[in-house]
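Anyone opening a protein record will find just a pair of labelled lines. A complete record is shown below as an example:
=====
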Amino acid sequence: MRKAFQWTVGGLLAGFISSLVLLANPESSPKFNAMNAEAKIEVATFGAGCFWGVEHNFRSVPGVIEAYSGYEGGKTANPTYRQVCEGDTFHAEVVQVTFDASKVSYRQLVEYFFKLHDPTQVNRQGPDYGTQYRSVIFWHSEAQKQIAEAVMQQLTAAKKFKNPLATQLVPAATFWKAEEYHQRYFEKNAVHSCPVIEFKSE
C-alpha cells in the first residue's frame, strides 16, 4: 500500500515538473512544435534604408506575422540609435520579419524588398546617407541565400535597374532590436511620408 502510494505521488510530481518545464519552454511542447511546423514560421531580415518605412510596408504583407526595426551587421553589442547614426558601429538599419511560409514565400518577400527601395544606391536611400542605410539581405539559411541570389540574378539579367545592384548578401548576424519608439513609428506618429507599396502575390 505504501509503495503504491509512493508511485502515485512520484507520478504526480513528475507530471507537475513536466508541466513547469513546458510553461517555461513552450517551444518544447509537441503541440507547439506541431503548430509551428504546420504554420511554417520563418524569419527574414532586410535592410533597405530607414527602417521606419520598411517595417511599415512589410507589416502590410499578408502572411507576415511580425516585423521589428533593429540593427544588424555591426561590431558593437547593444548599439543605440545615436551610435548607429554616427556610423562607428557599422550596423545597418534592418527589419526582421517573422512570416508564415505557407501564406507568403521567402522569394515573394525578397522580390517585394527590391520594390521598396533603390537597390543600386551605395550606402544611401534618397536623402539618407551612411553605411547604416545600405541595401542588404541577411540570410538565415542556405536555402534563403540561394533564393536571394536567384532573384538578384534574374533582376540583373532582365535589366530591371539602370545601374548594377549594390545589395549586399551576407549571413545573418546578431539582430539588435531598436529602441521602442522606433517600433511601429508610422502608426505612433501618424507619419505617411513614405508611400506604401501594395504587395502583389503573383
